[in-house]
Amino acid sequence: MPLRGKRIVVTGGAGFLGKHVVRVLESRGCARLWVPRRYDYDLTTERAVERLYRDMRPDILIHLAGVSGGPADHRANPARYAYENLMMGALLMEHGRRASLEKLVTVGTAWAYPRSSPLPLRENDLWQGPPPECRSAFGLAKKMLLALGQAYRQQHGFNSIHLVPAALYGPGCSFEGASCGLVPSLIHRCLEAARRNLPEVVCSEDPAGRHEMLYVEDCAEGVAAATERFDGGEPVNLGTGTESSARDVAAAIASLTCFRGRFVWDGASSSDAPRRALDCRRARQLFGFRAQTSLQRGLRRTVHWYLEQYAPVDAAAS
């Protein structure tokens, strides 16, 4: 499906991943792009979704909008994460069908995989059990979008594809708050400790816990490639296929931020932390996606972006 000339809506296009996806689409000559904002279109309501299709008349809709947070917030608000993520996707799919949408792209989460799945996580294992309890409602809501897409494809011939990315990091990510991930959290704390000459940084992680992380610009390229070249009903992982321990990630970030102190680890044991390493062969085979950015290079770019955005503010405040 050539993208140039298509009317494309990117929900969540002002968010972390969405901004990069919009940039990639623009670089491919897509000039007819729309990014709905929540204050104009609350996609958890049917009236707003109907109005979005009526106002924007998309040929393609890439659905990146959603709600997520840190582990504590997921435990405290599981109903919100289930309801809002499921309603947005379901309404966009049903009204996309009614509006003769040519293609819907939904993006899930590696937290949809069962806790007990063998590594690397293969797409065929998504339905072999429930997601980890720490994000069960969120994972099930995202996985239901895959099931809905397959049902709509079977009954209505509706073209819906589903992508499952690894944990994302990179320029534009949130560096503070409960939803902050491992990489931005460590960058923020290491730079703050280096600036204040603090002797240690406390990490609420297991140092031996292993993580697969995908640079956000690589993920955006994968989303664009799938939108253009893939029309199948099977889910597709987007990742690097490699893991790193939290200890190794912290050491790399310490070097990049000139933090000379020590790390104090107070996280749960590694036996309690589900591993999310993805098998990424299907994406290579179906639409030629392969992550291009090494972890070291991605961390360097992320630290550089952080310093450009926040260092002048910190200097002014001091």
What features would you describe in this structure?
With 318 residues, the chain is an alpha/beta fold. It has a domain at 8-169 and 213-242 and 276-293: NAD(P)-binding Rossmann-like Domain (Rossmann fold, 3-Layer(aba) Sandwich). The protein has ten helices and twelve strands. It has helices spanning 16-27, 46-56, 71-76, 78-98, 136-156, 182-196, 216-229, 246-257, 281-287, 295-317; strands at 8-11, 33-34, 60-63, 103-107, 160-165, 167-169, 200-203, 210-211, 213-215, 236-238, 244-245, 262-265. A six-stranded parallel beta sheet has the order 2-1-3-4-5-10, with helices on both faces. The chain has a two-stranded parallel ribbon with strand order 6-9. The chain has a two-stranded parallel sheet with strand order 7-12. Helix 2 (46-56) crosses helix 4 (78-98), helix 4 runs parallel beside helix 5 (136-156) and helix 8 packs across helix 10 (295-317). The radius of gyration is 20 Å and the shape is globular. The termini are far apart. The mean pLDDT is 92.
